[in-house]
């Protein structure tokens, strides 16, 4: 077993290092655990960057002889309040006598030879890749609280996994009111911050800005990770997509989170991620423990593409379920934008016929098949087949699809309940609501109380039944509203524990279902990307990232999502025009190219197409199947940002070939031609472009670039497909 973690007892430093990344901490004065370095691999450390501290008025000190050792300046690994740090803390604990003061000092540490598997939270999975975990125990002997900090490093990943755990060693109960997963103090060096904001139909909007003095905080209090500010933050100074250092953080968690950046009065920069402390608390009785979710800290010296590629690799290797890691995902035809709620047996039979004829691999029956579901107002929870629409049920359709050699999937929104359902009449106490208030509706529905074991069992039973009785091999799991009134009618814990307990209940259901049915493909959806985060990836190999299928808006949404998520995990559908969300008309070629840049499918009335239209679809599917391996498993590069002008371009490549899509939106008469520089080619090899059969050297395509025609018209796409020629 190789060693990636070392403790040097002579200078009290911890070093985590592999060929890509190094992370260093020091125990100062045998007490404080401080941060020294997170970045490119270094061979040896002799405190070259340790700040020369000075005594300062107002700076408190534990040792009057050394006033320069003040918590006010120390770069803490896990800052706590009321002890002179005066910045945003990472942990806060209320003790029984309402005392909030704690003082955590280094106590001991241990090193384990693998990654940590959390039983009730998604986590970085152990695989064949060697890993080590450092656990540092901080202890407050007055309050008798132990704080354990976990750091895992894998052999080949430029990612450090961090998390924390509080243990109540004393006899009195305590209340954890804040526990982040990671906190890092570094020098402010004119870094920019990159985060995302977004909304329904406009997810993953890039937000790159200067960091001012003070506290910048984003997060979610929506009960889901949410598109508002997904759990991602990066720091970069002069990085481009290809060059420069990028430090990025994300969280393996699907509920309320927070990200804080604090640039302080001495120009130190604190960067933090974890559970949202405004919507969280957790009571611990004597001997009990609480684990935070895991944060992922990635470092790249190859710009933002490098940062994304290391997340893509890490998610594929350590989050996505091993069954689905490298399995081809079926090309779907989904019924939603075809007829919305108006589905029936005859229609779906026709859909199966057309789908199998054109080369689709799975038919998905979306919303509308159960209860009396003719609008969003009813029937969630009454998961019995609507026999008016499907007189012989769903199973004959699944069997019919099987005969035609294609799969069958079905839509569920398992966490929800509509008013006027049998379920609500039977179990009014299953609704999420506080004692004194009528809960708010969202999309005409309430949320089920997933902290209730009976509710969890109901959902597991309902989905198991659909999987076994219908025989479906795909489930689209939707969540079309976010939380309000987050409380249970039957539980007695504090309401501020609720949001996290909901997520634990949710994860328990997903654990059960994905363990019992590892071969069923679960697709995540929350009106698109309303709950997309690394935690969801642990259970859902793919996500419908936006309800917006428009040929322009999708460029930004897919571009943004690729900062974190591997292409295999992002689904994209070709839909009809005028687009149902924007009314915009964009050519089939452009819409197809956008969907082809993801885990591809369709959602349109293919049964009503002309012969010519069907032929185009058949050809598109054929082409995608030929290219699926490189799109799903190749390396993804962003080439030109749609947040930055009129074009968007990206590329998929492996050793032998590269596929580049260039989207040029509005035609400008003064652009004589477009020029695109193509990175990551072998400079010693020749490449042939497949449409024109022209041959170019790799070095000229990278350095001179390739000139493309600036064709008239808006929203056009050009595809460049390069194949390396044998030497
Ligand atoms: C959400 C999803 C859609 C569709 C509808 C069904 O909006 O994002 O894809 O499934 O629900 O009601």
From TrEMBL:
GO terms for molecular function: alpha-galactosidase activity. It is an enzyme of class 3 (hydrolase). Keywords: Glycosidase, Hydrolase. It catalyses: Hydrolysis of terminal, non-reducing alpha-D-galactose residues in alpha-D-galactosides, including galactose oligosaccharides, galactomannans and galactolipids. Coiled coil: none annotated. The keyword Hydrolase applies. Its EC number is 3.2.1.22. The active site is at residues 478, 547. Gene3D superfamilies: Aldolase class I (3.20.20.70), alpha-galactosidase from lactobacil brevis (2.70.98.60), Golgi alpha-mannosidase II (2.60.40.1180). One of its GO terms (biological process) is carbohydrate catabolic process. It holds the Pfam family Melibiase. Residues 32-285 form the Glycosyl hydrolase family 36 N-terminal domain. Residues 648-721 form the Glycosyl hydrolase family 36 C-terminal domain. CDD domains: GH36. SUPFAM superfamilies: (Trans)glycosidases. It comes from the Bacteria. PANTHER family: ALPHA-GALACTOSIDASE C-RELATED, GLYCOSIDASE FAMILY 31. Belongs to the glycosyl hydrolase 36 family. This is Alpha-galactosidase. It comes from Carnobacterium maltaromaticum.
């Amino acid at each position: 077993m190789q060693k990636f973690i070392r403790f040097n007892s002579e200078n009290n430093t911890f070093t985590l290092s592999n060929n890509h990344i190094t992370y260093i901490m020091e125990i100062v004065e045998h007490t404080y655990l401080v941060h020294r370095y997170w970045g490119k691999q270094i061979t040896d450390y002799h405190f070259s960057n340790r700040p020369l501290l000075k005594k300062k008025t107002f700076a408190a000190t534990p040792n009057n002889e050394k006033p320069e050792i003040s918590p006010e300046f120390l770069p803490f690994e896990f800052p706590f309040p009321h002890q002179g740090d005066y910045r945003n803390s990472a942990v806060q604990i209320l003790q029984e006598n309402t005392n909030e003061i704690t003082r955590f000092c280094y106590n001991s540490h241990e090193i384990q030879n693998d990654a940590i598997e959390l039983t009730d939270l998604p986590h970085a999975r152990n695989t064949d890749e060697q890993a080590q975990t450092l656990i540092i125990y901080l202890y407050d002997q007055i309050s008798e609280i132990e704080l354990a900090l976990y750091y895992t490093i894998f052999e080949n990943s430029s990612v450090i996994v961090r998390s924390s755990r509080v243990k109540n060693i004393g006899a009195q109960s305590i209340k954890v009111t804040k526990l982040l997963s990671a906190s890092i103090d570094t020098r402010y060096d004119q870094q920019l911050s990159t985060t995302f904001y977004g909304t329904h139909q406009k997810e993953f909007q890039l937000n790159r800005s200067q960091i001012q003095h003070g506290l910048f905080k984003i997060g979610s209090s929506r009960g889901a990770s949410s598109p508002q500010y997904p759990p991602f933050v990066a720091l970069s100074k002069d990085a481009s997509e290809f060059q420069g250092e990028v430090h990025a953080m994300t969280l393996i968690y699907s509920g309320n989170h927070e990200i804080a950046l604090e640039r302080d009065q001495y120009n130190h920069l604190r960067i933090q991620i974890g559970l949202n402390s405004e919507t969280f608390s957790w009571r611990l009785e004597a001997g009990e423990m609480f684990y935070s979710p895991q944060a992922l800290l990635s470092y790249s010296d190859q710009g933002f593409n490098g940062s994304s590629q290391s997340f893509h690799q890490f998610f594929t290797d350590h989050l996505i379920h091993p069954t689905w890691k490298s399995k081809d995902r079926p090309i779907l035809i989904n019924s939603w934008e075809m007829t919305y709620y108006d589905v029936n047996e005859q229609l779906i039979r026709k859909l199966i016929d057309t789908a199998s004829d054109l080369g689709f691999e799975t038919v998905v029956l979306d919303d509308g098949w159960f209860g009396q579901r003719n609008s969003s107002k009813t029937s969630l929870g009454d998961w019995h087949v609507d026999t008016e629409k499907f007189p012989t049920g769903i199973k004959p359709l699944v069997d019919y699809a099987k005969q035609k050699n294609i799969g069958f999937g079905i839509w569920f929104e398992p966490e929800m309940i509509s008013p006027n359902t049998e379920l609500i009449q039977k179990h009014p106490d299953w609704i999420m609501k506080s004692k004194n208030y009528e809960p708010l509706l969202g999309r005409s529905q309430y949320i089920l109380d997933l902290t209730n074991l009976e509710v969890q069992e109901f959902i597991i039973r309902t989905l198991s039944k659909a999987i076994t009785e219908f025989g479906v091999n795909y489930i689209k799991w939707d969540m079309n509203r976010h939380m309000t009134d987050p409380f249970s009618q039957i539980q007695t814990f504090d309401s501020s524990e609720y949001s996290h307990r909901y997520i634990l209940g949710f994860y328990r259901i997903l654990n059960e279902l994905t363990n019992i049915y590892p071969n069923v493909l679960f697709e995540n959806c929350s009106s698109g990307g309303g709950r997309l985060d690394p935690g969801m990836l642990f259970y859902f190999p793919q996500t419908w990232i936006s309800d917006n299928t428009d040929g322009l808006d999708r460029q930004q949404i897919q571009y943004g999502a690729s900062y974190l998520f591997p292409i295999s995990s992002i689904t994209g559908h070709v839909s009809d025009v005028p687009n149902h969300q924007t009314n915009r008309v964009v050519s089939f070629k452009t819409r197809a190219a956008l969907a082809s840049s993801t885990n591809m499918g369709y959602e349109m009335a293919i049964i009503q197409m002309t012969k010519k239209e069907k032929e185009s679809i058949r050809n598109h599917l054929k082409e995608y199947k030929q290219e699926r391996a490189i799109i799903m498993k190749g390396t993804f590069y962003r080439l030109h940002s749609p947040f930055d002008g009129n074009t968007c371009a990206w590329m998929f490549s492996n050793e032998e070939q590269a596929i580049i899509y260039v989207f040029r939106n509005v035609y400008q008469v003064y652009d004589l031609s477009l020029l695109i520089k193509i990175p990551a080619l072998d400079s010693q090899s020749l490449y042939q472009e497949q449409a024109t059969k022209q041959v170019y050297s790799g070095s000229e395509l990278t350095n001179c670039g390739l000139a493309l025609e600036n064709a008239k018209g808006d929203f056009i796409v050009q595809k460049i497909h390069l194949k390396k020629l044998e030497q």
